[in-house]
Design goal:
about 150 residues; alpha+beta; two-stranded antiparallel ribbon; about 35% helix; about 15% strand; elongated
């Protein structure tokens, strides 16, 4: 028997792997889904912000001079997407025995992550899987399944 592992972000399949030779009695995969979700949330909430998207190969657009000046006047950091830190702290996950969902509760998250056409706000992706993150997730599952 084989096990199909899929992660989808914004409707786009980001990772798909078949792990072969698994036994039928492996039904609860909550532990590897939970570990994967925790590590991915760290990438999305910390690494994406500190590298301004570079860690996920989606370098963020620079702030306009007007926005930089406005942030300086109001005492905010000059970095994109960081004013109060609320969006960074709003990543959550729901983990079940056969899936994990990672999302952001900030209302304005969707405007930055979305790939919809835009006129004012540039796209600044925070959630995306690179080959490095895909490998990390697959290794977490392999380690868990090897123990079984």
């Amino acid at each position: 028997m084989s096990f199909q592992l899929n992660w989808t972000i914004e409707g786009e399949k980001q990772l798909s792997r078949v792990l072969s030779g698994l036994r039928d009695d492996i039904k609860n995969l909550q532990a590897p889904f939970s570990e994967s979700a925790k590590k991915l949330i760290k990438v999305f909430s910390q690494d994406s912000f500190s590298t301004q998207g570079q860690v996920i190969n989606e370098r963020w657009a620079r702030l306009s001079p007007y926005t930089v000046a406005q942030k300086a006047r109001n005492g905010y950091p000059p970095d994109p997407l960081i004013r109060t830190g609320a969006m960074k702290k709003s990543f959550r996950s729901v983990v079940q025995t056969d899936s994990a969902t990672i999302y952001n509760t900030a209302e304005y998250f969707k405007y930055h992550q979305s790939n919809q056409p835009r006129k004012k706000i540039p796209r600044r992706v925070m959630m995306k899987l690179t080959e490095e993150q895909k490998t990390m997730v697959v290794r977490i599952f392999q380690k868990h399944l090897f123990k079984k």
